[in-house]
Amino acid sequence: MSTPISGFIVLSGILFAIGTAGVLVRRNALVIFMSIELQLNAVNLALVAFSRMHNELDGQILAFFSMVVAAAEVVVGLAIIVSLYRRRRTVDVDAAAELRW
Amino acid sequence: MAADQIAFWAFAPISIASAVLMLVQRNAVHAALFLIVNLFTLAVFFLLLDAPFLFAVQIIVYAGAIMVLFLFVIMLFGVDRDEPLVEHLRGQRALAVLLGIGLVAEVVLAVRAGIGFAARAPDGFELVNEGGNPKALSHVLFSEYFLPFEVTSVLLIVAAVSAMVLAQRRARSIEPAEARGNGA
Amino acid sequence: MIDLVWLVPALPLVGAVAALFVGGRLGRAAGWLASALVAGAFAVSVGMLVDLLAIPTAGQRTTVVHLFDWIRVGIFEANVDLLVDPLSVTMALVVTGVGALIHVYAIGYMDEDPRFGRFFAYLNLFVFFMLLLVLAENYLLLYVGWEGVGLCSYLLIGFWFERPAAASAAKKAFVTTRIGDTALLVGIALIFTRFGTLHLGEVLDTRLWRDIAESPPAVPFTAISLLLLAGAIGKSAQVPLHVWLPDAMEGPTPVSALIHAATMVTAGVYLVVRSHVLFEASEVAIVVVMIVGLLTALYAGVSAIGQDDIKRVLAYSTISQVGLMFFATGMKAYAAAIFLLVTHAFYKALMFLAAGSVMHGLADEADLKRMGGLRRAMPVTAVAFSIGALALAGVPPLAGFFSKDQIVAEASRSQGVGVWALALFASFLSALYISRLIFLAFAGERRSGVEPHESPRIMTAPLGLLAIGAALSGAALGLTVDGPLARFLKPVVGQIVERSGRLSDAALATVSVVVALSAVAVAWIVWGSGKVDWQALRAGPWNALQRFMNRGMYVDDAYGAIVERPGKAAGRGLRAFDERVIDGAVNGMGAIVRVLAAAGRRVQTGVVRSYAAAFLLGAVAILIYVGARL
Asked: What is the ipTM of this complex?
């Protein structure tokens, strides 16, 4: 492969940054969750890139596990969002501001 | 330019663009769709990096299962309302941009200090992938990473149970008088 | 019986404890129980007297009965030991004998009181502490008794504490005697420093002093003696610490009779007489004792003439008589001082109880201006009071003549003419003020609005017994300087040096009688006969003099201005400081924390995205830091 590995790493960093910005800026809980998924994927990319760089399969295994855990996390997270919606009739995170001074 | 370089430089902008567009969509369904595009580009990158198994799993599990799950929930709850554009918290958007740029700069600097921008992947990966990528992966998975494997299977069961518990309709609470009546 | 000496303080202690715990349920029986226990202590004391007299050699009439070990720390040792010798047995007999009679009287006097049981508990507790004081074998135990009687005095003066005057008087008594008590404690510490022991037998045995004389005496006898005297001045209400005694009359009359006539105020006399070798070793101290005594006798005698409250007359009289006891002690006539102590206990307690009877019969009226003509309505009280008064005045053959006369005679023999004249004048004053009291209360026509009545027999019976004592004790105990009491006390106090003075004994006696009778005559003319309009005189030209005498020569008012008001002002100032500065600092810290917290908690906005921004910011900062270091 002739593409420099650093390209993948930088790309991963850029995607991670975009995901971070999404978490901070969006108000819809589901979109925030999706931004988190984007972050996870960016990390997976980095893992696989490093795995290729070091000629090992550990990175790919880790990316695999990351996907499994992400799946479980999505399941639970969405269940939480569903029950929150049932309570409040909205998925706007700014509406849940009662734990304040 | 080699084929992989063409592929990389073609899909990288698509990846970034789809991510940014996901960010700015006011409609949640549109955002989800753009994320799916992003996931596909990432799958292609996995393929470029000699991880064909992950390429397939990414499409099947991530784009195919997880995002579909997302879409279910979005369609149940958030589809008819668009998110307002006005930002209540002062400085949040600026902070987000700042943090994003900070992170990218950090990564660039780390790469420059570490592997350098010109580093290429070494050549011997075919030996690693001997017998095919899935077979090689399974060798490693069921030997070194057997414990995490079992644990994640438990994790999946737990996640499924917890989802059922969290999402069920709450049972009607029993009146104390009824409880006493039942006991007497 | 001497081994049973522990019963003497123990019986009243049992009474005190019992009355404290079950007194409410016993009712009037509490009074009888308390009286019986004190009478029991009296019986044991009589037994001890008999046993002492049975010892043929007078010099061996000293026994120490060890009860139990108390304090043993290094070289300091003080145990609960009781000393049985003539002086302590004499004091114990006075305390228990007069005390028992007063207890019986109090059963009648305090009849209606809701806290009947507690009164007798306090009375018995007082008797216990007083006995501890006089029977103590070492100075520390004596001090325990000293403090204990002070406490009981406070409790009893303020027995009717709902009355602010009583509560204030109790506080005044305690604080004033405290000044003396502190001096006494320092004196006891100095005794230990000098002698290495607090046992009376060792400190006061001059034969042992030679062993201690080797080391240079770091502590002079003058210091020790003057400090002990200061304690005595406080407890015995001498000038300048006398101001508490007139106010202490706020307490019930049995209390005044027991504590402020017969026993507690004589504790100072006992202390000085007991420690007389220390006073004699310092040339200055013994003279100071005499001066304090004479000065007090004259001061109190003058002030007594101007008092209108029947009990305050008796209070100043007590101050004056105790002053005479100190005067005698200062002249080294210790047996005479104790003689006066014993006879004074009889007639002063008698007069206090009779005064209580008068007040009881007049619905608690105590102002002499509103009495008069009571001899017809209260004959028994009148006779008893008169016997006591005549005894005090020094009319023979009643007790006061023998005891007071001995002191005046000693003054003529050992001191100069001036001192003797002053002593005679003090005697004149005592006859004058007490006659005035008798004539104002019992003679003339009735000035009160209330119909008076005689008191019940439970109150008049003790009066009778005390009257017998007041009448006969003088002749029985000491016709001459070498009388039975003096001989009994000789092993402890030594003997009065026989001196021949200017006048013979008979001449001296005649002079005393003339002085006494002339005072009675003057009193009759002014207050008894009705020929002199004393009410107009005191309202008119003699008004300033009357007020001067009535206010005790304004000594108490002076203390109020010099000590009390600045003290209270300082107290108020410190309180303001405490509230504003100290509490302010503490509360201020709380206020600061509150302000900071109010500012700080605004971080908790409840908005998830702000929190997310916060930790991402932190995460990036850490990353940058780590990256920069690489």
From this structure: 0.92
